[in-house]
Amino acid sequence: MNLIKDLVNKVAIDDANRHHVGRPAAEYLPTIWTTQSTKTDFDIKQHNQDYPRGCGPLWTQHLVSLSGQLIPTLFVGKEDVFYVLRPSPSELAGIKLFDDLRASTAQIRSLGSFQTTFESFCGFELKGLDWSNLFIAGGSVLAALTTKDTASFFNELKASDIDIFLYGLDFRQASRKLCHISEVLRANIKNFDCTYLVERGVGVISFVPGLGSGGRKIQVVLRLSANPAAILAGFDFDQVCLGYDGSEVWLSLRAARALYTGYTVTSGAIGSSFAARVIKYACRGYGVIVKPDHGGRLLVQLLQKLVDQDETSVKTLYTEQLWYTLGNFKYVYNLMKQRRSTLWTHSFSSLVTLASLWKVAHGACRIPELLVHVGNAQSLYGAYEVAGVVGHQFDSRDWMEVLVKLVPSLEGTSPLPSTSVWKLTSGKVTKNVMGQRITMVVILPLHVRANLALMAPSVCGPGSLVQVRGSTGLTDTDGIRMEVCLWHVDARNMWQPPKGLSAQVHQFLVRSSMITAWTIGKVATGAPWLKMRHGRALEQSQRHSANPATLDEASRAAWLRE
């Protein structure tokens, strides 16, 4: 029952930080941009963990406003764009990875300039939006704040999504807000019903432009939060810990540091991310600095030696291949992947090997190829990619065909609904699409389902998470007995609660649905079930799901050792 213990433990860790109240974020700004010390990094990490849990206005003290605090504190004068001279890598302590494209300077736009650029990014699709309890955060805000060329901005980042988060609402209020967002999009986008699809999955509702429509994908994340600080505290990379509330840009201290240094600083919390995101932001000029919590300079020197050895090994292996062989980088990538027992971000040693592959790819102009490899089904990120493919291409009969392969006793049964398995897609925005029930297939260790139902009845209580009758005769290669379950998701339980066991259980079921879809996709293409090690995949995914706001010291130390 390690899965259940880990769920409970993550709630306890979050509760331990619930009553801490730190200094206002703005007081740290001068130190962050002048002194790169271990104490500064510790203060930022602790401040991130101490984010306010309530729905009141305290969150504004936990973040830094662009126009009211960051620019007046760190810059002189009134400009549309402010330029930052970053410290050299040698001035920054820690083990530096993925920084080959990091720039020595950065630029930050004023609020007015940001708003102009952001409107260009959105294509005016959000005109007339009621911004109350709504926060756009992540890469889209980072791009609009730091872009250098507004004229080509939209085209260069046309594949980037706009991620919308809701806060301070219950699930009924959130559903009404979702309807408002859809009405705004329909009012602003010409021929919306002909050019956009609405997709509802287990974690997001997406408004997806058709090919050639020129629109931008907009996602509403089905995760409720207490406030914007709570939203940003859990993000995987420092540079994306910023958001826009319709009138102001808000940054966490992590984001302020990343804009200045060009790095995400981690001591293990990056394990909750994916290799594809590491490479994505490396391509956009942001590296990673690994700083152990303890051990001082001696430990850093030892770890750096391991980095240098790994880098030399990968480079030598690559240069030994015939230069004209098209598959040489793929060969090296697969070989190094086989040598690592964890996913790329799940341990320091695996992350170092990925960094070595990045360095070779950068030097040999193979970065696009590396992006393909880290996004395939070999990684956990691939679970999300393949899950999407399965969701789009599989109907209920396809799902049942694979399930019968796994559990022959299901032959002749029809436990799945005829429609709405995994994802619901419509050409029109209706309340029915947003609230209609969809069914997720989830393969879980025996007895986990019953425990989850007791822990979070609002998420997976009676009738919501059910066993497929006769499906308990499934065992993986580690001897873990499994059962096939169906998680029915509708308007009542599609939103992840903001905190507590219910939030952890909801998040776990979302990940388990993804991993199950990945498993189904692999088995459908001929992979043996036993090779999937499904139970181990679930346990590793849960263990490494802690974000920077909830990861404890013991887990960070284990990440460095592995």
Describe the protein:
InterPro entries: MGDG_epimerase. This protein has 26 helices and 18 strands. The chain is of the alpha+beta class and 562 residues long. It has 3 domains: 20-78 and 110-266, Beta Polymerase, domain 2; 296-380, no CATH class; 381-561, no CATH class. The strands form 4 sheets. The protein has a 9-stranded mixed beta sheet. Residues 377-386 have low confidence and may be disordered.
Layout of SSEs?
Layout: H1 2-16, H2 29-32, H3 38-49, H4 59-62, E1 64-65, H5 66-74, E2 81-85, E3 95-97, E4 105-109, H6 111-122, E5 134-137, H7 139-146, H8 150-156, E6 162-167, H9 171-188, H10 192-195, E7 196-200, E8 204-209, E9 218-225, H11 228-233, E10 242-244, E11 249-251, H12 253-261, E12 263-266, H13 275-283, E13 287-290, H14 296-319, H15 328-339, H16 348-363, H17 367-374, H18 380-393, H19 396-406, E14 424-426, H20 431-435, E15 438-445, H21 448-455, H22 457-460, E16 465-467, E17 474-475, E18 481-489, H23 500-524, H24 529-532, H25 534-543, H26 553-561
Parallel strand pairs: 6-9, 12-13
Antiparallel strand pairs: 1-11, 2-4, 3-13, 5-6, 5-10, 7-8, 7-14, 8-9, 10-11, 15-18, 16-18, 17-18
Helix pairs in contact: 1-23, 1-25, 6-7, 13-17, 14-16, 15-16, 16-17, 18-23, 23-25
